Amino acid sequence: MNLLLFLIYITAFILVRQRLFSASWSFAAVTSDLIASIQLTILSSFSPYACLFFLGLAVPYSLLDGLIYRATGLRMRISLFHYLRQWKSFWESAKELGIHRFFLFFLIWLSLSGLFATLVLSTMPSVTLGIALFGMSLCLAVLWKVPTHLRHQRLHPLILEQVEGIRVLFKKKEKRIGDWHPLQENYFCPSSDFPLFRFTKQFQGRKHFSLLPRTGQKPHIVFVFMESFRAKSSAVCDVRAPFELTPCFNQIAREGVLWRQFYCASARSYKAIIASLFGISCKKDEQAFHKAHNFPLRGLPEILKEEGYFNALLQGGDLSFDCMGEFAKAHAFDLMEGMQEIAAGVQPAFQGSFWGVNDELLMRRAVQVLKQRDREATPSFINLFTISNHHPWRLTSEGLASDLEKKIFYPTDNPYEARFQKTLHYADRCLGWLVNELEKEGLLEKSLLFILGDHGQPFSEHGEKFLDRDGLYEEQVKVPLLLLAKGQGIEPQKIDEVASQEDLVATVLDLLGIETFHHSLGRSLCREQKETVAMFHSPFFPHRIGVRKNQWKWIYHPETKEEELYDLRIDPSEIKNLAREELMTLNALREEGLTRMKFIEDLFEKKLLIPSRLGEEDHILDFSGQRELSNERLVGSVVKTPPVILKIDDCDAISDRAIYEIAPFCTRLKLLSMRNCSRISLRAFKTLCLSTQQLYELDISHCFCIGDEGLEEVFDDTTLLQRLTLEGHLFLGGASIVGLLKKTPKLRRLSLLGTAQICDAEMTSILSLCPELKFLKLDVGRLTDASLEAIAKNAHHLIGIYLVNCQQITDEGLAVLGQRPNLSSVVLIDCPLVKGSFLKSWKKIFFR
Asked: How many helices and strands in the chain, by DSSP H and E?
């Protein structure tokens, strides 16, 4: 009977692990299941009542733990059981996650356990009991050494509780890194290992304002990050500023809620993203961009995506700058467009600087996206990042440049500041156009419009450097924030409470009444609060940190230990340093600032913002150029770290055997590059591709064993592939390529260099199968001018084309191609019939 009990336990635990912890098989995981089964068998064998208790509760507990872990990455620790008293609060969340079905299973299992308990007649001998307890003690000692994140991911919940209890008993005392508790929130923290990660049920406190109750579609949410928009330049925030410098913003501010003591996180645009969208920031948050593929963050993009929103990021600059595009791709954004895409999608003539497109093009594109989603009855979360007011502050918009050429809004001896006035005024005009256009299209009353500066801009107010980005004075960190919610019950008002970009996450959750998990440090700006704090830091060396609390402003230089303290009520220009006079205030702000900053930095460094089932690996395996890489080493690395990005370029020794073995571990693969892997067959390649539904980019150039037969079966109808590089396949037929592209309708980049078997008819088929194609590389000697005419007619989104060895292309065909309005880049190599006369009909071309 004891053997039967053991088999029931171990079978149940293995089934739960297989279905819900599929990526956590390891020695520690299996050992913990065995120990838990032995323990429960011993305890259950003492009496029928013990059997009913342990068998009836242990297996459902293990299942509940697995369901919650699969859904949220959390473990159902025993310390959380007291929250079951508030089960009504969690019921809707449980239904949404599908966990509510567990309770039916629990009732059935408890009944069956009662029937089974009546059959227990024997007890375990004391000798066997002693041996079992001794063996389990040894195993627990081994599991004690398992790293924290692996314990969280892999151990059985009962064993996890025991191991953690042992660690608490023998834990060495360490200096606390600080602590933090949210104010005016009804919340709970599921794990002490992740001190910021919490479930907010509701926000508390007296409201400044609230939205009118509404039925039907949720409101659109638009964040407009105005480049270098400092509060000092807006008359509604600083009475010293001329009204005509930003007249549109000043006028709009009369209709919305304006925060006049609002601060950015730092003097970098990507810092504004981290703070505003994820509610947290410190000098180490660049990890989130440098390791964007799996850095554990949860913010508005993920939360609103779960609420049915369409997430879009439209940036006037280049998405590759600061890894903005990769970051957005990793954090639930559905649409990401930078300067190239916006210029191509709005009008053929590119207008802007090397930093990006003019703000007017960005605003037009934003209206297009919002109109389209509104027609589809899909709420949108759109983030706009303007760029025209960026250094070197030169106007490139035709018409406005001459209009503002001699305009002077206020006298200044700084030529850069004079230009800044003009570009800021231009950006303000574009903002006014956006608001007017949204109102004309009936979208303004359906939207919550947040307008804020990404950071400020100094002009030698506190030193000779006009680009003093490491300083933390008001001109650098104080920016406006305006909420415009026309027709939605929010009365216009001005609020002088200290606030920051970190508060926006909580504010949106409060406005929309969303109950969810998050890790925001901020508070809801919808609520009144007496003592409010904003923290900021400089992104460059020498690093500085600052705190604004009530009327006091504290700035600290860690390298030199210098401190500055200003009373902004009587000294808004920060001239008189009171650090030696107000020692009590100085000490209090120093303690608060240093403790909180160290606390946040440690959370970033140790990746303790949210639980992650993926551990602390980067999930990027790059073996490019390692010709001696063996099958065994590749398989071992992939099994240990299931990759999101896998590069095995020029790894000649990798064969089909390794590809078959790693396929089950590549379910999250987004980028696969295997150039010059000549020993991998089409069959093995197909197995690998079909194992993942998330493949975004693929390079199989010069893989000579991948031939014609069956190529069209590599992808299924759900593929998300957007970039395909298929170079060096000289004997690959055009029909096979067309068959392959039938399954890739979202393709945007295609390279067929060295694949010379495509004819005009097949080129036409490719264009019809890939309507979103933006970049195309061809090395096809059989193409004629007919293909160029088809491209000009059908490739509506094409931005760049690269033509090599096109023996039959002529000036006439290129002249027709030049009529493609979005096309901005053409490369021609080895085209003998081209004489150059087509250039007369081209307005813009790069010729090589």
From this structure: 27, 27
